[in-house]
Each structure stands twice: as C-alpha cells, then as structure tokens.
Write a structure and sequence with these properties.
Barwin-like endoglucanases, 169 residues, alpha/beta
Length: 169
Amino acid sequence: MINKYNVTIHILFWSIVAILVLITALIVLTQNGEIDSFIVKTGTEIVIEKEPVYITQVKEIKEETEWFYFIATGYSANDPAQGTNSITATGKEIKTGMIAVDKKIIPLGTKIEIKDFGIFVAEDTGGKIKGNRIDIYFETKEEAKNFGRKVIWVRVLDNNIELAELLAD
C-alpha cells in the first residue's frame, strides 16, 4: 500500500526542484545575455523608451598625427666651433624655440612638436643636419653641450607636409 504522505512529499520535492532549476536557468541566461534571444524566440516584445539626447556642444577633433624618430643635438649662436652665427637660414635673428633641420625633410617655417620638450619652428639649417636629425637652439654653449645627443619623437603641427613621405625618400 502506498502511503499518501510519501506521494505528497515526492510531488512537493520534485516541484521545488523544478522551480529551482527554472530560476537557476533564468539567472544564467540573464547573465550571459541569452535571455534577449529567448524572449525574441518566444515572440514576447519588450519596449524600453529612452529620453531624447540633445547635443548642446560640439567639440572639433583634430586628426591624430604620427610621431617620427629623430636624433637631436644642441647648438648655440655665435659658436665658431660649430660654425654658427646669430642669423638663421631664413634670415631671422635666432632665438629660443627655433631648430635647425634638413630642409628636404622638414621645410623651413614648419611648426613641429618635440615630445616632452615643446613646440619649435624650423628656421635654420646646418651642415651636419641631414635626414632625421635636428639641432635645437639653446641660449648658451654650455646648455647646448649639456643637452648632448638624444633620441626624440617629432610630429608636424601645421600639416602642410607629409613627413612620412619625405622620410621615405
């Protein structure tokens, strides 16, 4: 004879197990993002209304330019050992913020940025400045000597030239 109490217990036990499995499956599907595909397959549609977005300010984004590897040395004005005077190749009085370049690579008058050093203008040339070399002007011979020779990263700011094409030649 089957005990009615045992049958009731078995039915309640398996009902609870089925409910727990269903809840676990829903939790797993929700975390994996699969519940959305489950809802679509069953034909139930959920509509979420969002508030409209109004753009109040437009920020212009400049095109990112490439950085190029150069070797930099320091120079100063009126140094007979270096063969310099106080007038640049462009005819201007030399001052801080000017650099000497190979004008085949960086045309004179070009504004460039040297990473971690600042913005400079190519206003001078030099006899030993060929290819990817730059001379940075310093006020004194001692500052130029202390700068020594460094590897630097350069990017063109005034976009009149394509430095990558010039360096490839």
